[in-house]
Request: fold
Amino acid sequence: MSPSHRHAGQKAAAPPGRTIGVGTVVFALIAVVSIAAASFFSVRAAGTDDDLRSNLTYIAPAGVGGGWDSFAREGQQAMRSEGIVNNVQVVNIPGAGGTIGLSNFVTKSGQANTIMATGAAMTGGIATNDSQYTLEDVRPIARIAEDYNAFIVKADAPWNTMEEFVEAWKADPKGMVWTGGSVGSIDHLVIAQLAIDVGIDPKDLTFIPKAGGGESVQSLMAGTADIAVTGFNEVGDQIDAGRVKGLAITAPERFDDYPDLPTFKDLGYAVNLVNWRGIVAAPGVSDEEFASLEQIVTESRDSASWKDSLERNRWEDSFLTGPELIDFIREDQTKARELMKELGL
Reply:
């Protein structure tokens, strides 16, 4: 996963050292999406365990096909197939690193039959967008799983190792073009971590944000970026097909079936952020309702269906609840804010 100097005509058009491709948020469109999604919510708050096991709305604060959407739909399948919840409906509310969904969710105070996916991307989105609401405004139920980022380059790129790419990057910090998820996403933050570790000012990073791994790979293949960072489960098949080269992965250990793909730990780089995913309840939910939701989520996580999801998606089980979860989220938000400052955002 490492690119070097670009051939003539392949360089991204944006000026070096600037984050490009973000665009202006179209607030009217977001409002329409949020209102339309909100129309799916139950008009009443569930009050008993039986109510919650009858019907749940599961918000994915991102578009269809993205990481949060996949996570929510895998959870939906586990709850349904195992008979944990009779009916689970996934509602997508995309925008602003998950903070549009978060804002909408906070207004559902007291509605125990609505839950929402969250994770590292949202902590970055909160910091990036100076969100009115944070994860302090909801009730975290559990951290469920983690997935890992892969650093990839085109198959014909001149770099065959992460070390080769880093040397080229150090020689031209602003000239190397990166692509990944949204500004402040885990993709963006792990690049900042690598920059700091190798002595590059993160403010010199040229980064093209994309809506998901598919778009990042397209940008890479089109020659508008030198290197892409995205979830491994989104590019593993591309590596298998020989379309891209994997330079490194943020996992703590190498994958058994990809023994030639090193971890950053193997390479001696201090890159250790992981893309955790979890579930939160709305504010105002009673302790009794919260306990029921926690039980539902725990049963889902322990199910055979969910274990199959972990294996298929190469997610790592990282189940965490209670006070330890609250501490973890606060630490994660602090890390995100610090890295955003390093990026000048």
User: Anything to note?
Assistant: Residues 169 and 176 are 6 Å apart (CA to CA). The two ends are 26 Å apart (CA to CA). The chain has a mean pLDDT of 86. The chain is about 40% helix and 20% strand.
